[in-house]
Task: inverse folding
């Protein structure tokens, strides 16, 4: 399968005869990145699997309406983020429970998770990250682990670069304080 | 005194794993899920159209057949028939049968 530009992929997708080819190419290019981004938000492999599939179903249904104003990758990342947040909302035990509380509760299951293979420091780091507010946690993960540029994160989250830089800086401080105290 | 920690010096590894061959299977699962989504739209139409058709037929049937039922009180009788009715003491049901 050759390398196609985003524009070419969108053209191929519009044609019923090449729609599946285009979609397969998009899935191949983006499924792993989307999965790991989602996994870092929802933590559990089973949940990340469900959310990833829902993400690509939405991509399939809506790609013909995508105007190409951003990269396909950025658009998929945005869908993945929204799907993961929707998933966390469904996990709320009560109407009044915050998303942050849901995220913090997820940390209890980390050490027992069969698909967590971090050492003690990495476990503490993940628990520290889970103490962050959800949006800040997502920003931190995208910058720290995914090594995305602030411009790209800004396109995905719809937040200004300046706000993201401040967010990341505060997140780092909180995490480092948590690690030094624990 | 707590040691100053700089997380930028950490390895930055994502400490999660996946089952073996997960991503090659994920692609097939996504394709199957998208095909199922297409079929679910089709099956809704397959049920909706006949249902609408039957509903329309039933609506037409009930709105038209009501007008064919006429109560006995609305029946117009000739004077001869009326006199015969009174003299014979015919019940309403029999009268209805007599006329129709």
Result:
């Amino acid at each position: 399968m050759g390398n196609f530009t985003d524009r070419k992929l969108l053209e191929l997708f519009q044609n019923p005869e090449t729609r599946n080819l285009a979609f397969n190419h998009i899935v191949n290019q983006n499924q792993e990145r989307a999965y790991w981004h989602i996994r870092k938000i929802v933590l559990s492999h089973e949940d990340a699997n469900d959310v990833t599939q829902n993400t690509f179903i939405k991509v399939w249904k809506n790609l013909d309406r995508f105007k190409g104003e951003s990269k396909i990758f950025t658009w998929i990342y945005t869908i993945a983020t929204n799907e993961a947040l929707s998933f966390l909302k469904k996990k709320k035990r009560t109407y009044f429970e915050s998303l942050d509380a849901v995220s913090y509760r997820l940390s209890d299951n980390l050490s027992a998770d069969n698909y967590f293979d971090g050492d003690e420091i990495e476990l503490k780091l993940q628990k520290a990250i889970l103490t962050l507010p959800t949006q800040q946690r997502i920003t931190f993960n995208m910058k720290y682990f995914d090594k995305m540029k602030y411009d790209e994160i800004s396109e995905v989250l719809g937040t200004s670069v300046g706000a993201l830089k401040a967010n990341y800086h505060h997140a780092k401080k909180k995490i480092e304080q948590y690690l030094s105290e624990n | 005194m707590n040691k100053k920690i700089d997380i930028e010096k950490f390895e930055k590894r994502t400490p999660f794993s996946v089952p073996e061959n997960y991503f090659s299977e994920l692609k097939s699962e996504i394709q199957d899920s998208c095909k199922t989504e297409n079929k679910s739209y089709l099956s809704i139409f397959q049920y909706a159209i006949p249902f609408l058709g039957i509903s329309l037929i039933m609506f037409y049937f009930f709105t038209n057949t009501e007008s064919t039922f006429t109560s006995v009180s609305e029946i117009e009788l000739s004077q001869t028939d009326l006199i015969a009715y009174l003299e014979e003491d015919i019940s309403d049901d029999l009268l209805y049968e007599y006329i129709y």
